[in-house]
Design a protein that fits this description.
The chain has about 80 residues and is mostly helical. The chain has a single domain, classed as Non-ribosomal Peptide Synthetase Peptidyl Carrier Protein, Chain A, CATH 1.10.1200. It contains five helices and no strands. The longest helix is centred in the middle third of the chain and has 15 residues. The relative contact order is 0.18.
């Protein structure tokens, strides 16, 4: 099974196809002109589907970087 970071890089490069995979892990919303509210929702949807989770709206607004999504996902309880 792929690790969390690899799966998350795939999510980011699906939503932002011009983003080189090797740069994904350090990207923030300020780094990408394409990262607007529409792309933020698209990214959330891709991540939710890839990780089979639901990100609460109140959490989503505070995540504006790869690192933020990675930290959020790493903190989730592991399935039994």
């Amino acid at each position: 099974m792929e690790n969390l970071r690899e799966r998350l890089v795939e999510c980011f490069t699906v939503v932002f196809p011009t983003l080189p995979p090797e740069s994904a892990a350090t990207v923030t919303a300020d780094d990408l002109a394409d990262w607007d509210s529409t792309h933020h929702i698209m990214l959330m949807n891709v991540i939710e589907e890839a990780f089979n989770i639901e990100i609460p709206e109140e959490v989503l607004g505070g995540i504006d970087s790869f690192e933020g999504f990675e930290s959020y996902l790493a903190a989730l309880p592991k399935p039994a």
